[in-house]
What we know:
Layout: E1 3-9, E2 24-25, E3 28-29, H1 30-39, E4 44-50, H2 54-62, H3 82-95, E5 102-106, H4 115-127, E6 133-139, H5 155-162, E7 177-187, H6 188-194, E8 202-206, H7 218-229
Parallel strand pairs: 1-4, 1-5, 6-8
Antiparallel strand pairs: 2-3, 5-7, 6-7
Amino acid sequence: MKKILWLVTARSGSKSVPDKNIKFLGGHPLISYRIQSAKDTQLLGDVWVSTDSEKYATIAKDYGAEIPFMRPDYLATDEASSIDVVLHAMEYALKMNKKYDYIALLEPTSPFVKSYDLDKAVNLLSEDKMASAIVATKESRPNRIFIQKENKYLSELANNLKTLKKKLGRQLFHKEITPSGGFYISKWDAFLESKSFYTETTLSYLLDDISGLEIDEPLDWQFAEFIVEKKLFEEKNIK
């Protein structure tokens, strides 16, 4: 059976929502949702948390994740990229002689991705011999024809709409998708070669609106609280 490394990235602090990654949502710290969903998959693997905070590390351990190292300061800045954080973890795994077939990046800000979706995504990636990776996506709204650069006048938008010869309606537009932030999964060797989750053979995994929620701003947090309060998210209880 192939093995996967689930890497949950949780840098301390947050400008938009203070200490967002450990803020309580539905009685549990935000990071615990990603740890639990990874633990509940049917796949063989490990769940690691990469953090620069001893406090975050303790919380992650309490929810069953491993903290094999503390993230170095140079990878805990605003300028540090997620790719560098992933490569750092992969290099550590190789140093420890740990062998994996897949690397997965899970960010705490997408708490409603189910373990079922993680299992299915890895299976799809495994079945597609041409694919290098699979990334969670969601439907993009509105259609790009209704978007223009910020300007005093809506001239670009007006020109876009002139090209439409039929009555406006959603059914006339092709569905467009955008990355949701829900997960990024790559074949191990493919990631080491490309150093990216995005290649010409990256698969899309479309999530629903709730699973596709990414918490970036205070309003997103309020929506997440609404989802939990109204029990719109169904997953195993966080342990």
